[in-house]
Design goal:
Strand content: 25-35%
Strand order of the largest sheet: 3-4-5-11-10-7
Distance between the termini: 31 Å
Radius of gyration: 14 Å
CATH class: Mainly Beta
């Protein structure tokens, strides 16, 4: 499947999704890179600050990896998997709105080494399921995805 797009919101086909947490997961070897979905970054508005959990910390599924502050919202960025935090995206120190402009690329937030992957991966969905879900959310909430320029 190719990347899907609805109302400007992109749903890439090369990641899995935790629809409850509104996050994506890309597996690279035994690591997982995690970020906000396009719909999530649009709902939040321009990010202004991220307070991270430190690398080396063990995090359980559903617990916050970071606290995100945006122009519209302050709240937790929940982990879709249990694991050990490997790194946070240092790019945010220079450009916190990178997640608004490139949510599935340079705007990733956290990398972890999953510790309960076999069981927890079953709760993630592919892009086809995610697209059907987000299409409904987008239409019901009149969402139009955009990219912040700064």
């Amino acid at each position: 499947m190719t990347d899907a797009n609805w109302a400007g919101c992109v749903i890439p086909s090369d990641v899995l999704y935790d629809l409850e947490a509104d996050v994506w997961v890309r597996f690279e070897g035994d690591e997982a890179t995690i970020g906000m979905t396009d719909v999530a970054q649009t709902r939040c508005g321009r990010l202004v600050q991220v307070s991270w959990k430190k690398p080396g910390v063990h995090i359980k599924k559903g617990r916050p990896l970071a606290v995100i502050e945006s122009s519209k919202w302050v709240g937790p960025f929940e982990s879709p998997l249990s694991g050990d935090i490997i790194s946070n995206n240092d790019w945010f120190e220079q450009d916190v709105a990178i997640a608004n402009r490139d949510p599935y690329g340079a705007g990733w937030l956290v990398r972890i080494k999953p510790t309960n992957l076999e069981l927890e991966k079953q709760t993630l969905v592919d892009s086809e399921v995610a697209f059907a879900h987000y299409k409904k959310v987008i239409d019901e909430n009149n969402i139009r995805c955009f990219r912040c320029s700064q």
